[in-house]
Amino acid sequence: MNSYNKKIYLSIFNRYILAQVNSEDLYKMINHVYGAMITHKPKCEPHLSYILIKIDLDHMSITREGDSSKYFASSLSELLFLFEKDMTIELQKIRSDLLFIHSAALTIDGEAILLVAPSGTGKSTTAWAMINSGFSYLSDELAPIDLNSLTVMPYPHALCLKAIPPIFKLPDDTLYTSHTIHVPINEFCDNNVRPLKAIFYLEFNAESVKPEIHRVTTAEAAANLYANSLNILAHGENDSGLNVAIKVAGQVNNYKLKSNDLEKTCKEIKLLMNTI
Amino acid sequence: MINTLFIPCLRDGLVFQEVESESLILDKDKELIHQLNESAAYIFTCCNGENNIQSIIDLVMENYAIDKETASNDVFHVISNFIKLNLINE
């Protein structure tokens, strides 16, 4: 009979999440992926509580307190995916005051930049390259923006890659699952809320000889921002949220970034950030 | 095929927002955003279900101080695109 039972508390966007696990490898996985967000047991009740259960390598499940559904997984990576997916949705409900953008977020000299692009474009790979080029890490896929202060909150889970990056060797303690690669980033984290300075709308272009960065209009930026927002309908007038995207885009520097060479891209972004 | 008597009328479910010298149209039904330059946005706002194409051409000529042929080409081109994008009921 398995009597292993460990509780892990996470602090995310000033809210507390409890993950209760019944096996050492689940504990290690959560610790590895969310290590930068682990905290002591809070005085208040957690805002979200999960129970992650492993029966064997092919049979795992996850439940959330207050939800009668139970989700099943047949691998650690699938369980992790379910946990991340549910937690991301619930956090958007809990912090509906924040605007969540599907983007990587990094900082330099205390200011935040976003890399906005659809999945599969190379946000995380570019983020990894930027981390190794002097930038600090806030997130590789979720950038919550406080609309009042126009600041970006950190969501520093382990950087998640779909393939080994072409440059910058991964650390020895990188976690490899059947579908994903989780790179520990604790030493690169910027755990602070940072003012948003610039947004780069990223396109991978294999034909590019060198990275192309050019300013885009507020209208184009707002359209891109809108398309990559997760909860924009919850903001703004007439339930459209378009005015929110325009407001955010109008207050920051916006650029289209066509990228091919990762090292040159990082250099160009750094040079640009020094000038704006 | 549209002619000068055609009265363009915008479809429901569109959100129009001016952004500096451009405009955005959010098509909530199709989940698309369209980006318009200033003159296309002006023509869009003229499609109020009351102006026919000829009236819109006259308005464009007056507003931009251009000749009739240029205004006519622009208006037909833009409104044809609006129809292709399903922003106007045909």
Instruction: Give the strand order, joined by hyphens, for the main sheet of chain B.
Output: 2-3-4
| Span of the ends, CA to CA of chain B | 9 Å
Strand order of the largest sheet of chain A: 3-1-2-4-5-6
Largest sheet of chain A: 6 strands, mixed
Question: What would the average pLDDT of chain B be, to the nearest integer?
Answer: 94
Catalogue the unreliable spans of chain B: none
Number of strands of chain B: 5
Biggest beta sheet summary of chain B: 3 strands, antiparallel
The low-pLDDT segments of chain A are none
Shape annotation of chain B = globular
> Radius of gyration of chain A over alpha carbons?
19 Å
Report the largest inter-chain contact: A-B, 14 and 12 residues
Overall pLDDT level of chain A: 93
C-alpha-based Rg of chain B, rounded: 12 Å
Tell me the total number of β-strands of chain A. Answer: 17
> What portion of residues of chain A is helical?
25-40%
The SSE string of chain A, one letter per element, is EEHEEEEHEEHEEEEEEEEHHEH
Series of H and E elements of chain B: EEEEHHHE
Distance between the termini of chain A: 61 Å
By secondary-structure content and strand pairing, the structural class of chain A works out as alpha+beta
Q: Can you offer a commentary on this structure?
A:
The complex is a heterodimer of chains A (276) and B (90). Chain A is α+β, with helices and mostly antiparallel strands and 276 residues long. Chain A contains six helices and 17 strands. In chain A, α4 crosses α5. By secondary structure, chain B is an alpha+beta fold. Helix content of chain B is 42%, strand content 23%. Chain B has three helices and five strands, in the order ββββαααβ. Chain B has helices spanning 38-46, 53-64, 68-84, and strands spanning 9-10, 14-19, 22-27, 32-36, 88-89. In chain B, the strands form two sheets. Chain B has a three-stranded antiparallel beta sheet. A two-stranded antiparallel sheet of chain B has the order 1-5. In chain B, α2 (53-64) packs across α3. Chain B starts with 8 loop residues before the first strand and ends with a strand. The model of chain B has no long low-confidence stretch (mean pLDDT 94). The chains are: A alpha+beta (276), B alpha+beta (90). Chain A binds chain B through residues 217-220, 222-223, 226-227, 238, 240, 242-243, 246, 250, and chain B through 15, 17, 19-24, 26, 28, 33, 35.
